[in-house]
# Entry
Amino acid sequence: MASHISGLLLALKQWQRAINKLGKKGKVSVSREQQLANAQQQVLAYLKSEPVAEAIDELIRQAIAPDGTSPEELRAILVKHSQPLLSIELQTVHPLSVNPEDLEAIVSVFLRSPDEDKPVADSQELGTFFTQLSQAIPREYQATKDLSRKQKKRRRRDLTLGTLHTILGVGLLAGNTQLDMISADVSYIANASYILGGNALLSAMKNLIGEVEDVSAE
# Structure
């Protein structure tokens, strides 16, 4: 199962790279579009595979148990003592090559957003979210071509953040299915991963429709 999760995380990284090429100068070539389509299908194939789907569903079951950490409790932990948790999270999504600042950006948005107790119902809904985001991001890049330079820069920054939230949203839920290899306190971390990952996906959805709150000025 570990190889399937690692494969999914690497596929997410390839998808992010294909998305990033859309923001480069010049027309979007057929080659770029094909690379993106292939990367998207690879991610979806992993998400639909039985080992990955079962692992993610189990993590969600642990996370939504009645004795699980609530979003309010997680907020308090992240405000007062976030580094131990974030260090573990970075280990579980290592193949994504994200840096601490990337994860801290996810946490920052979560701390400013309304609570979502159950942001993702199961692995099937996770796949649906990824599909919607994969289809929306190229469309939104295309829509920036008629914007002014300042508007285009701001919108593409939003799209970059939305892409980051997407890979970390899926990555946290998938990568943390292997927490027994990293941490003894599996149930607590799994719950935190579910809340952060699920809310990152919701933030990505808002970002894509232009409703994400700009936190970079603070």
Remarks:
- The first helix runs from residue 2 to 22.
